[in-house]
Amino acid sequence: MLNFNWLADVSPIWQWVHAALRQLNFDFLRGVSPAAAKGVFLALFAVSGLLVLMIPKASILEGVENPRWWHNLKLWALGVLAVIFTIYSIF
Fold first, then answer.
1. How many domains does the chain have?
2. pLDDT in tens, 36-47
3. How far, in Å, CA of 32 to CA of 35, rounded?
4. Domain that holds residue 77
5. Is 14 in contact with 7 (CB distance < 8 Å)?
């Protein structure tokens, strides 16, 4: 567990920060396995990818006179999500 007691001795602002950090109690998550936590985060990335796919193409290409395939922001968003998903699944 992190020890933030030294923050209280620095200044009154840090005393407030120290009190706020003591309120962040995530002990209830202690029983969650790392594999389950990884699965939750990977599921969140998958859900965000599905939400990206639900955006209508007309709203993405609005204002583009001569649309090309690289103007489709869905492809870019899905590519970035795929990279992040891969990195999170490996590590």
1. 2
2. 999 999 999 999
3. 8
4. 32-91
5. yes
19 in the same domain as 54: no
Contacts of 77 (CB under 8 A, 6+ apart): 49, 52
Count Cβ atoms below 10 Å from residue 10 Cβ, excluding itself.
11
Task: Pick left, alpha or beta for residue 63 (phi over 0 → left; psi -120 to 50 → alpha; otherwise beta).
Answer: left
Q: Tell me: pLDDT of 30 over 70.
A: yes
Query: Are both 27 and 46 inside the same structural domain?
Result: no
Which 3 state secondary structure label does DSSP give 62? coil
89 near 35, Cβ under 8 Å?
no
68 shares a domain with 41: yes
Structure tokens at 36: 């389950």
pTM: 0.62
